[in-house]
Design brief:
Layout (H helix, E strand, L loop, with lengths): L1 H28 L4 E16 L5 E15 L4 E2 L13 H30 L4 H4 L5 H16 L8 H14 L5 H33 L1
Antiparallel strand pairs: 1-2, 2-3
Helix pairs in contact: 1-2, 1-4, 2-4, 2-5
């Protein structure tokens, strides 16, 4: 059981890393520097300096992540700022969408790869013991990608929704209104996360 928990946590951190690497690659592709990448929320477990001045940190709870840009903006989930308003709407949209796209793409690659390798990726095959790892990783990656597309700040979908609003209005939402929306969204996400963690904790407690 403990090995299953360790594998699940490792898979989630890995999928969060893939998500943030999508943001990082997109930001650099449009000419923005990324100086911090954080996986998880809560107390920091450890941090290290990566290439090109990037500082990476791992936090205790694998329920969020952030990629902070060098212009003091951010590609946030658990971060207070948006990307710089000086960056075009199109470029900001690419940065925000890149993370969920990477997760959805990974899920698709795993499913297609399994289908090609085993000539079948039916529900009955996915439930077999030898398919558990592929099913877990593909399903979790799919959920992370879809969850982050919800139109709720500070999720990526929330910032994309605000970009659509900015394009329609011809001006960004004022900072105070954006901050209020983010506080409300963060509260909703925090509440959902507590319920999710609580349900898993109760489940594993009964298995002990």
């Amino acid at each position: 059981m403990y090995s299953d928990i360790a594998f699940s946590l490792g898979a989630i951190y890995g999928l969060l890393l893939i998500h943030e690497l999508g943001h990082l690659a997109a930001a650099r592709a449009v000419g923005l520097r990324v100086h911090r990448l954080t996986l998880g929320v809560g107390p920091q477990l450890f941090g290290f300096h990566g290439p090109a001045g990037l500082y990476c940190t791992i936090a205790l709870l694998p329920i969020g992540s952030a990629c902070v840009l060098g212009d003091s903006g951010a590609v946030p989930r658990r971060s207070a700022n948006q990307t710089s308003a000086a960056t075009s709407i199109g470029k900001r949209a690419i940065i925000y969408a890149a993370g969920p796209v990477c997760n959805l793409g990974l899920a698709a690659v795993l499913v297609l790869g399994a289908s090609w390798t085993h000539d079948d990726f039916s529900l009955s095959w996915a439930l077999q013991a030898d398919a558990a790892a592929i099913t877990l990783i593909a399903g979790t990656s799919l959920l992370i990608g879809l969850f982050n597309l919800l139109p709720i700040p500070p999720l990526d979908g929330g910032w994309l929704a605000l970009l659509v609003l900015e394009a329609c209005r011809g001006a960004p939402l004022d900072s105070s209104s954006a901050a209020r929306l983010q506080r409300v969204g963060s509260g909703l996400i925090a509440g959902a996360s507590v319920l999710l963690i609580g349900s898993f904790a109760l489940r594993y407690w009964h298995l002990l």
